[in-house]
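Troubleshooting: if your tokenizer reports a length mismatch, compare your output against this known-good record of 257 residues.
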Amino acid sequence: MKPAPTAGAGTVYLLPTPLAAGSALATLPPSTVAIARKLDYFLAESAKSARAFLKELGHPRPIAELRIVEIGHHPDPAAIDGWLAPLAGGVDAAIVSEAGCPGVADPGAEIVARAHALGLRVRPLVGPSSLLLALMASGLNGQSFRFVGYLPHEPQALAKRLRALERDSRGGETQLWIETPYRNERLLDAVLGHCAPDSRLALAIELGTANECLLSRPVAAWRALGAAGRPPLHRRATVFALLAAVHPPQTPVGRQP
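Known-good structure output:
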């Protein structure tokens, strides 16, 4: 059984960050900004990004005086108790990723799990999630969906994985994934080469920026555009979403339904 929150202990805040530089005050609600400005201790995926973010928020203390611990892309499990130790004395902390929501396609889940085990209060704050924004704008099924992270790079493994995701989505489950931006074009080519013409593919490109582009159409329509007609994806942060068409079962020849 999870212990009750420890009296007098600090809170772990999950502090979302904007998806585009310079948009923090336009993206985050005032309540989230107000909490961030009160905190002095941050567990950040990238210390450099966190400093820029807190400066943009107008943190009242000099940024150099804040305690910012860099946890990296893959936090060291052996270090987590040390990172959370100040909270036993009443210090509040925030987990901050480079963009979006900590623990959702970004580091933080292991720290949150340990915080629960230690009886610390965990409080998620409102802010942007590229996955949910992409799903909202896709026109695909938002009642049943799955984020599958990154897909394989090796061509045969990638083709096999795409076919499996498409097969899984025939039950109505939207499949979401991301890729390292410089591999986006290659991944799009693979999707168009291996998925069925009537499956729907949505691309959410550079969400939250002035260059934001949201497109959703059947694979056949994407193919018809040709490479020249598609939006460029190279080095542009993109969320992919796929939903296969549902085909009615076929009645055997010579048998009445």
